[in-house]
Amino acid sequence: SNKSLAHDEL
Amino acid sequence: MNIFRLFGDLSHLAAIAILLLKIWKTRSCAGVSGKTQLLFAVCFITRYIDLFLHFVSLYNTEKVMKLIYISASVFTCYLIFFKFKATYDGNHDSMRAEFLIVPAAGLACLINTKFDAIEILWTFSIYLEAVAILPQLFLISKTGEAETITSHYLFAQGSYRALYILNWIYRYHYESHVDTIAIVAGVVQTILYCDFFYLYITKVVKGQKIVLPA
């Protein structure tokens, strides 16, 4: 599972 | 974007709109916790701080939503603490917000994805949002009741993060995307609503009012 560095959710 | 996140964001927008309408139409913020609204405003500002840092050039939906969330929550605080201050129930809105802010800030410094300012602010915002509703739930337990419109607000507010949990399950399964901090905080946040959800579904849906102790 890739850690999403940029948080792409509100 | 998936259906769960879409309906989650719509539910969140609905909650903000319901609360604004309630205060504006009844010209009263009785039964509304000003502290919870302040905490939400802090959450939005710390989470979307990038809007202020890099000038917002391209207006895409997400940036518009962030601007709506920030402006609507600040405006709601203005209505509560200034315009309709006389109707603010300060005596019952007595949960110490510091007891929520300080631990969230401390935890954000200890448990985060990356130790840099923006990331810590984002983490603080996530932890704070998880507990931001507590003053509102506390106020309802003190007054012993919730106006029906306030119950609808709480249901929409609680549903938003519950739908986000489904979004995270979807994204884990189809995109192998995991944001552990957001997931754990989101689960805690949704658990805090369980008692209210039970009351809402067994009472408000049948047209009754929520009166505590149940």
Structure, described:
The complex is a heterodimer of chains A (10) and B (214). Chain A contains no helices and 1 strand. Chain A is an all-beta fold. Chain B has one domain (3-209). In chain B, strands 1-3 form a two-stranded antiparallel ribbon. Chain B is built from 10 helices and 3 strands. Chain B is an all-alpha fold and 214 residues long. The interface between A and B is medium-sized, with 8 and 19 residues. Strand 1 of chain A pairs parallel with strand 2 (177-178) of chain B. Chain B: The chain crosses the membrane at residues 36-55, 67-84, 96-115, 121-140, 182-201. Chain B: This is ER lumen protein-retaining receptor. Chain B: It holds the Pfam family ER_lumen_recept.
> Would you identify the regions of chain A where 5 or more consecutive residues have pLDDT less than 50?
none
Instruction: Note the overall shape of chain B.
Output: globular
Largest sheet entry of chain B: 2 strands, antiparallel
Structural class of chain A: mainly beta
Count of spatially separate domains of chain B: 1
For the largest beta sheet of chain B, what order do the strands appear in spatially? 1-3
Question: Rg of chain A from C-alpha positions?
Answer: 7 Å
What multimeric state do the chains show? heterodimer
Distance between the termini of chain B: 39 Å
Span between termini of chain A: 20 Å
Total helix count of chain A? 0
How much β-strand is present in the residues of chain B? under 5%
InterPro entries (chain B): ER_ret_rcpt
Keywords (chain B): Cytoplasmic vesicle, Endoplasmic reticulum, ER-Golgi transport, Membrane, Protein transport, Receptor, Transmembrane, Transmembrane helix, Transport
Organism (chain B): Oikopleura dioica (Tunicate)
Pfam families (chain B): ER_lumen_recept
Which features does this protein show?
heterodimer; A: 10 residues; mainly beta; B: 214 residues; mainly alpha; 10 helices
